[in-house]
Amino acid sequence: MCPSTSGRVGPGGIMAAMSAVIANKLLAIVLIVGLGYLVGRLRWLGPPELEPARVLSNAAFFIFAPALFFRTTARLDPAALPWPMVAAFFVPVVAFMLLHYAAQRWRRAERGLPVAGPAVRAITVAFGNSLQIGIPLVAGVFGETGLGLHLALVSVHALILLLVITTVVELDLAHERSQGAAGGARLAPVLLSTLRNTVIHPVVLPVLAGMAWQATGVPLPSAVDEVLQVLGSAVVPLCLTLIGMSLAYMGLPHSLRGAVGLTLLKLVVQPALVWAVAAGVFRLHGLPLNIVVMLAALPAGTNALMFSQRYRALEAETTAVNVISTLAFVVTAPVWLALLDRFNR
Q1: Is residue 6 in a domain?
Q2: Residues 66/206, Cβ–Cβ less than 8 Å
Q3: Domain containing residue 257
């Protein structure tokens, strides 16, 4: 099957492309997660009391991910971004994430959620696995042109979504600390605490530093770029291993109802919303429409688990969503591809 710049995919080739491109990637992901599970079950890194999974999560969050974010931002050329596609994807996705956060926060006490729980669930339903699954899917189905558009969106994917949700969760935590310390919350201390904790943060600070470096117009020294690239490349395998270790140490939640509900929001509701906004408001069609919809339709990304472990909230549920949504994507992806093909005829 030869991809076309129109973005149309023949119905007969959809399943073939899916099976050829995704099967090996899904198998690799399952094996790496399985390796992490084996490491956890056999206690190779120590018993649960030593929290080895959290140590690795902190390493990912404080060392490897910041290197990735800084390098990505420092090398990003804003003029090269396809801004209509950026808006068509991130406007509905950020709105969807914040609406889900607001709904969860409204009923937080009733549901017994931790303070960071609403933000964790919000990032889980919004953040897709754009690298391990997204890149091979787009490359195999839409070709080099489609991959270029996908990578343009991926370059700001984590930056935008994590910046927004980090600000939200830090505001919640600052408000909670203010309530506990003074018996009531005053706006100024809450905002100052939120600003400080949001800026001095392993996600936000490297992004801001990368933006400042990019603004100078000076390229990264080759040795520094090489170090950042090596550190950043550890994020994906480390996070996949952490999924397996989390399953071994914490198991699945007692009820999978919440995880299944979040999976449906991620795989069904979000891509439908992005499609409606991208086509109806931003008038995207053909290949650009296909790219933004399939990016929205990807299973939950491992950054959501890293985020939940950072804030010690809903870790078992987030792990379950990662596993369930990845397996369910084998079914939902061909459906979205077929619907897009019919729409673009």
Answers
A1: no
A2: yes
A3: 11-344
One DSSP character per residue, 89-141 reads HHHHHHHHHHHHHHHHHHTHHHHT--TTHHHHHHHHHH-B-TTTTHHHHHHHH
> Which letter does DSSP use for residue 266 in this model?
I
pTM of the model: 0.81
Per-residue pLDDT reduced to its tens digit, 182-238: 555 565 666 676 677 667 778 778 888 988 999 999 999 999 999 999 998 888 888
- Please report the sign of the dihedral spanned by the C-alpha atoms of residue 65, residue 69, residue 75, residue 81: positive
The CA distance from 200 to 208, in Å, is 10
Residue 128 phi/psi, 5-degree rounding, is -100, 160
Tokens of 140: 């195999």
Give domain status of residue 294, yes or no: yes
Angle at the Cα of 179 from the Cα atoms of 176 and 180, rounded to 5 degrees: 90
1 domain-assigned: no
- Counting the structural domains of the chain, the total is 1
CATH number at residue 314: 1.20.1530.20
CA–CA distance, 132 with 156 (Å, rounded to integer): 16
Side chain identity, residue 186: R
DSSP labels, 130-183: TTTTHHHHHHHHHHHHHHHHHHHHHHHHHHHHHHHHHHHHHHHHHHHHHHHHHS
> Is 198 inside a domain boundary?
yes
